[in-house]
Design goal:
- The structure is a homodimer.
- By secondary structure, the first copy, chain A, is of the alpha/beta class.
- The first copy, chain A, is 37% helix and 23% strand.
- The first copy, chain A, has twelve helices and 15 strands.
- In chain A, strands 1, 2, 3, 4, 5, 6, 13, 14 and 15 form a nine-stranded mixed beta sheet that branches.
- In chain A, helix 1 crosses helix 12 and helix 10 crosses helix 12.
- The two termini of chain A are 21 Å apart.
- At the A-B interface, strand 8, helix 8, strand 9, strand 10 and strand 11 of A face strand 8, helix 8, strand 9, strand 10 and strand 11 of B.
Chain lengths: 425, 425
């Protein structure tokens, strides 16, 4: 199972190059002094030019599809009509982003191609690196435009959606030299792809706290977002005795504690009240109303739904005990998406072969892999990030961890190679 | 102790007149469609004209002092150099106010004079009705300008204070035909006044819930206002597991519940968190910081201070158990002011003579009586208001309750009469 020592040297060199490319990509921004790169921006076009150069130098054949996704393809030297392993992530960013969220996955895909090219491996599958055009949902308020195009999920309503300046998705694509009328041509044939692999920073603190560089992802969590409202009665903070109050904030506080408790007592559940507003909102006035937003996630939809029902029940209890009104309005809900067991097992073997513990984490955040998993066996590799920080200039990864990631992907590729060869012959 | 039936008829008639005058006063406003009457406004000047007419028709001698307070005086028919009973409240209002907060107390003072004039009572004291120019603190952000002038507590710094339009207190007084340079002349000689009595709506729901029209006030509560800040760590709502969080809102919620509990468990204590803000403040981000404002009041300063210390201790406990930062900054603090026992006892007797239970309430809100009590024996009479509502157009009192209030004040006057006569002769 061990790989020759010269592989280590090569992979470490390519990991350094991967970091250098992330650094170079960070210069392509639409806001001076900070990293912001949205869908079809000129910063994105500039990054495409640089990335195409790197891809073509590595021997890849490049194309940009009608949704603005950049692909670099290396055919199988072994089989005609071979299936394809797609590897990558997204190239867009949030405003004032870090260097690694998305970009690192694309650059690791390219590094894998370079490692393959410099080895004696003759793969029985094609390798395709993808840089998705849109994942963060910044410009149009809807995420995953790039990967949705690959599964044929970009309709006319999406194309007509407008950004803050009144520019539609279709117009933005036009400015990006893409023909929105051809958006359906982006859909990839299901059978021609063997799997999708997405390396991505963890965006959370678990790997750091466990002192591990890598993890596979078991599933991308399902999510419920809700607007919650408590209505009591405003009153003078000096003149209404405690027993005659209907303080909406006290009711909300009691519920917030229950939200936290429910999540603490349920393995894998995360639940967050991220906003709260009270009115009238003066220091000497009892809050008559409190409005808050709940975000609750789990990789098992039943557990998430049971938790939501539990919290609604507790809210209704408060309605009785505190004589206030409780309203719960679901704003958004999506199901969990499991990663593919067979592909993920190979990725685990890759992590083990790279010499690391095979951690298993859920992904609390959404990823392109959740869209791609609708059609192809998909897997994700999480890479430790400093402090669990993402969507912030402080995002950081180490060379050692990126080397570990590339090594794990390399071994994953070798396992996929063996598997396809043994299936084929 | 019973009064003749014709008194009842007279007092009911004067109570109706009192309500009519409150209604008429509501028309003097600086904002069309709602009641807003601030210090030295033209609406206040117009109200002075009407009120002077009513006062002079009742045989009172009127004057406006250098602080814009309006006085109407009826000398004692019995004694030269008699002491004076001062009765009244304030004539200014908050923006979008009701009809009774302040004004009702002034009009009840006037009604008492009219009742005395129409009786055969020859009082051994002068009666002076006062309408204070400023109590609410709206125009200059500091309350009690009117009553502070009577105790010699208006200094040059106050006179130079500016409103939102850059007009100083001194200039505003000038526009109101008052000479700010003479502000020290407002100070009343301590020995010439026997007591100050302030009738006022309760501004709370206790009388309504107890089904009683009236109450004496034991004391005006002391108050601590504080800014409280919890600092944890922001993070992704999907990717940070519960055990690695430092959620500032959860910490704040736990503390808010303790604030409520502390007040519920301490007789007479009221404690309110009236505002809360969290940041970053997004539905999918763990709150890294929560800022809130505490208002805590009690008529016993030691109890209030002990409660504040208890809540600071609990915040420090949370600092340990939740690994977050807790900051408590006192923004404002004032001591409780006890009402005068002897005068209040006479007022209680007045309430009993009017046929009502002698309720005793603290005042959670501030009043001119708190300033006047620095120099003169002071008492307050609370009148039930519908729903406990004040500072709002929905303020309402009933004719029956105002009749009860006037009857109680009338009997208070008779008791003060007997007391002074027995002391004198």
């Amino acid at each position: 199972m061990n790989h020759p020592p010269q592989d280590d040297v090569l992979l470490a060199e390519l990991a350094q190059r991967t970091l250098d490319r992330c650094e170079a990509a960070a210069a392509f921004t639409e806001e001076p002094g900070r990293i912001t790169r949205t869908f079809c921006s000129s910063a994105m076009a500039d990054l495409h030019v640089a990335l195409r150069d790197w891809m073509e130098a590595a021997g890849l054949t490049c194309r940009v599809d009608a949704a603005g996704n950049l692909f670099g393809r290396l055919e199988s030297p072994l089989l005609d009509n071979a299936q394809t392993l797609l590897i990558g992530s997204h190239l867009d960013s949030v405003p004032n982003a870090g260097r690694y969220d998305g970009v690192l996955g694309v650059m690791l895909g390219l590094a894998l191609v370079e490692a393959v090219q410099r080895s004696d491996l003759r793969l029985p599958f094609a390798l395709e690196v993808v840089g998705f055009s849109e994942e963060e949902g910044v410009r149009y308020g809807v995420p995953f435009i790039g990967s949705r195009a690959l599964v044929g999920d970009c309709d006319e309503a999406l194309l007509q959606r407008k950004d803050a300046n009144g520019v539609s998705v279709a117009e933005a694509l036009g400015h990006f030299s893409c023909d929105a009328a051809q958006i359906q041509s982006c859909e990839l044939p299901a059978k021609k792809y063997v799997a999708y692999l997405e390396p991505h920073i963890e965006q959370g603190p678990v790997l750091e706290s466990e002192d591990q560089p890598l993890s596979i992802v078991t599933a991308i969590a399902g999510q419920t977002r809700a607007a919650v409202r408590f209505v009591g009665a405003a009153g003078h903070a000096g003149t209404v005795p405690m027993e005659l109050r209907k303080d909406a904030l006290c009711a909300a506080a009691e519920w917030i504690i229950e939200v936290e408790k429910a999540a603490q007592q349920t393995l894998g559940l995360v639940a967050t009240v991220g906003t709260i507003e009270v009115s009238p909102g003066a220091g000497n006035v009892i809050p008559g109303e409190a409005r808050l937003r709940l975000d609750i996630r789990h990789t098992d939809d039943k557990i998430r739904q049971a938790a939501v029902e539990h919290l609604i029940r507790l809210g209704k209890d408060l309605q009785q005990t505190r004589n206030i009104e409780f309203q719960f309005t679901t704003a958004h809900e999506h199901s969990a998406v499991a990663m593919d067991a067979a592909i993920t097992t190979m990725l685990k073997q890759g992590i083990a072969a790279a010499g690391h513990r095979t951690m298993e984490l859920p992904s609390g955040a959404g990823h392109d892999a959740a869209v791609m998993a609708r059609r192809w066996p998909s897997a994700m590799l999480f890479i430790r990030c400093r402090g669990g920080v993402s969507h912030h200039p402080d995002e950081a990864v180490t060379l050692a961890d990126v080397t570990a990631a590339l090594t794990a992907i390399w071994h994953f590729g070798r396992r996929l190679n063996s598997k396809i060869l043994s299936d084929y012959f």
